[in-house]
Each structure stands twice: as structure tokens, then as C-alpha cells.
Amino acid sequence: MVVQSIKHTGMSSMKKNIAIFILFIGIFTLIYISLTLDKDQRVKEQLEDEAKYLQISYNQGIDRFHVIAENVYISLQNDDVFLKIFADYNKNGMDTTHTLLYEHIKDEFIKLQHLGVMGLQIVLPNNESLLRMHKIDKYGDDLTPVRYSLDYVNKNKTHLHGFEEGRTSHAFRELYPIFRNGKFLGTLEILFSSTLLQDYTMRASNIHTHFLVNKNVFEVNAWKSKLVEPYKQSFEHSDFLYYLNDHIESNRLNITNEILIKPLRKEIDKGIATKKMFEVYKQVDDEMKIITFLPIKRIKDEKVVAYLVSYTCSNALLNTIKRYNSLVLLLCFVALIVGAGSIVFLRDKERMNNELQYDFLTGILNRNHFVLHTKEHIKNAKRASDMFTIVMGDIDFFKSVNDTFGHQYGDIVLQEFAKILKSSIRTQDLVARYGGEEFVLFLTTDTTSAFKILEAIREKVQKFEFGIQNVHITASFGITQVRKDEDIENSIKRADDALYIAKNSGRNQTKIV
Questions:
Q1: How far is CA 387 from each of CA 26, 322, 445, 484, 511, rounded to the nearest angstrom?
Q2: Prediction pTM value
Q3: For the residues 230-253, what does the mean pLDDT come to?
Q4: Can you tell me whether residue 160 is helix, strand or coil?
Q5: Other CB atoms closer than 10 Å to residue 394's CB: what's the count?
Q6: Contacts for 195 with CB less than 8 Å, ≥ 6 apart
Q7: SS3 for 57?
Q8: Tens of pLDDT along 294-346?
Q9: Do the beta carbons of residue 509 and residue 502 sit within 8 Å?
Q10: Which of 62, 194, 320, 484 sits 20 to 30 Å CA-CA off 456?
């Protein structure tokens, strides 16, 4: 009675300690999750604010482009002299029309350049360039292969705007169909540089920005030597170039690359791959740096070919992260103190359970717990027709391995043999060390399927090189079907009889009884 009382008290104490440990873990987990969710929500909102600022700044820049372009379009569409020169193209020819148009609008174009207009182009309905005010000597070339937007406006006779690359550069473009007395004459194109957009966000919103362009938007190798604007390999991503404008300093970029971009490389690459707007952040000294990537799609296929990238600092985000880190640190400290005793207890308990259930050498089930688990499997069988098989296996001539290489090497062979058995069966099956070099398996199948499995294992064992000496061994197996309502020990005995037959029949084979 005293022994039973001690056991009962020990079990109650163990259950109580486990319950307390689980309770504390649950409380700490809920607190941690709550803190993390609150932090994540605050971070999300603060990053979204930064994204909104950049989006608003970008939209303001694009709206400014549109207003300027709209005024140019209205002015030329109402300029009778301009329209007449354009309309007389077939009578006067390209060279004369080109010269007359240039002389007529050159003074106006100089004024437009002060407003940030990078270029102005007039294109014939067949997509031939009639006049480039920004490249006055280049005209008469067919732009169909490289300029989707011009071809679109000429065909559909409608306004179009957006970002598009050319042969050696890119621009934000506003395109308008030009008419005279209802007759379509061609397309007017006004170009704005990404440089202007950068400068605008810097001046209007005080946001430091980079404008990144994918190298693939240019013709092969063109960006290396022929770009109109000065570009350099981007630090942010290997597929992109950035424009060297006045507010970008090389020394500052090098420092930013080392302390900010490189640590965030994987996050940036992942964000670029999404083709969506995203933000990344990192604390540098006492500042929280935020990098926001605003994707820019080209007109033709809505494919992302550029990014407007902003670099900002956020005290609010810094305080959010500091507060979260402090609370988590405090939580961990409390959890460590409260849980230390329970962790030690559970670790000792787990070690004791392992020692009771598993074979110390091979790490698989021992004989007693194999029997217990097997009975449990059979008891919990879902269908009366379920088939179960017991297998006894034995390493052939194992004594010679010990005699030749020593018992330590023999232990290695047993360990590797156990790994082969365990890796060759399904998760619902069982394997155990029965004793010495004997192993027992419980398979949830019939003897025919079990025979195929064991033959495959036997052949694998025969080919395997065991230990550093690359020893080759063989194994024999005996199989029997578990009979309904039969004690499992009887099934094991019958499988052992089958193994005995396999041994006496020459070894390295599988027998069924």
C-alpha cells in the first residue's frame, strides 16, 4: 500500500507540474502573439504611410507632366500655322515640312525645356518621325518596331500616356492625335525625363529618391555605351540601372549599399519578384531607415520595367520596434525564470521515457514496447478485414563481424542495419530490436506485400557497405500473418519459426509461415 501511495503521489505531482508548465507556456505564447500582432499592425500602418507619401509625390509629378503636355497640345491644336504646315506635308515633302515646323515651334520648345520637357516629337500616320525637337537632325525613321505607343495612337486616334522606353533611353510620354478640319494628320508626343520626377519628389516632398530602370528595356549592349542619359549599375538590384542626377552622391551610395542594401538584399529581391509596391526597413544606429519601391509599368503590356525608390527615416517606426523588443525581452526573462524548473523536469522525464521505450544502441523500439504498440495498433484497427504481418529478421553470421572487427564495429553494423529497416517501412509500421542481432517488424499489410518489402530490404542490405571497413553482410527474414484474436506473442513465435527455416535453408532469404 505504501508503494502504491508513493507511485500515485508521484504521478499526481508529475501531472500537476506538466499542467502548470503548459499553462505558463500558453499564457506567455498568447502575450507574445498579442505583442507581435500589435507590432506588426503598427509597422504595417507606418510603412503604408511611407508608401502613400511616395505614391502621392509620384502622382503629383505625373499630374504636372500631364498639365504641361495638355497645354502644349491645346496650343498646337489651335495653332493654324502649325496645322497648315503639318497638313501640307504631302505637297511640300518631308525635308521642307521638317524645317518649317522646326522654325515655327523652336522658340516655344526652348520655353518648354525650362518647364522640364525633355523632348517633343511629331510623327506621321505611318509612324515615321517627322520632327524631333530634342534631336533635330534625326528624322524620317520608322518607329513601328520600337514604339508601341505611337503606333497605337496613330491607329486609334486617341490620347495615351505613360512610361515607355526608346532605342537608347526612356521617358514619361504624353501622346495626342492631331487633327485639322476633322482630318487626322499624325501624333504629337511630349517627353518628360525620370530625372525631372526625381527632382520633383526631392523638392516638393523632400523625399530622397532613385529612379531604377530595368536593363532589358534597352537594346542589347546599348546601355553600356549609347545611353543619352548617364546611368550606373543599381545597388538595389542587379537587373536595374539608376540615373545619376545632381542629388545622388557616390560616397553616400557606397555607404548606403554596405549598411542598408546588402543586409536587406533577400527582402528586396523577394519584393522585386512580386512586381508590386513594397517597403523594407532596417535600423541603422539611432535611425529607422525605410526603403519604398514604387513599380512603374510600361504602356505596351503593363509590365513593370522601372521603380521609383524612396529613402526615408521614421521615428515612429523606430519607437514601435524599440518598444516591441523591450517587451519581448522582458517576457522572455520572466518566461525563463518561471519555466526553468519545468523544462528540467520534462527533459528528465523524456529521457526516462526514451530509456524505457527505445533500444539505447539503435534508437528504435525495444522488445517490450514493440509488443505494447503492436497490440495497440491491432486494437485500434478501423476494419475487421485489416491485415497485419509480423517479421523476424536476423543478421547472418553476425558473430564473425564481432570476432573480426570487434564489438564496437559490430554496434555500428547494428545501428546502420536498424536505419535501413526503419527507412524502408511506412510511418504506420513498427520496427524494434528484439535482442542481439535480431529485429522484429510489424507491417500493416498481408504476407504477399510484406514479402516484396522484405526482399527489397534484403537486397539493399546485401549491397550496402557497413561502417568504415565497408563490410558486406546479409540478413534473413521470417514472415507470418497475424491471425484474428491471436495473442501477438504467438505471431512472433511463428515468425521466428519462419526465420529459423530461412537460416537453415542457407540464409540470405525470406520465408513465410
A1: 42, 61, 5, 9, 18
A2: 0.60
A3: 73
A4: strand
A5: 20
A6: 211, 229, 243, 245
A7: helix
A8: 999 999 989 999 999 998 899 999 999 999 999 999 988 887 887 666 656 55
A9: yes
A10: 484
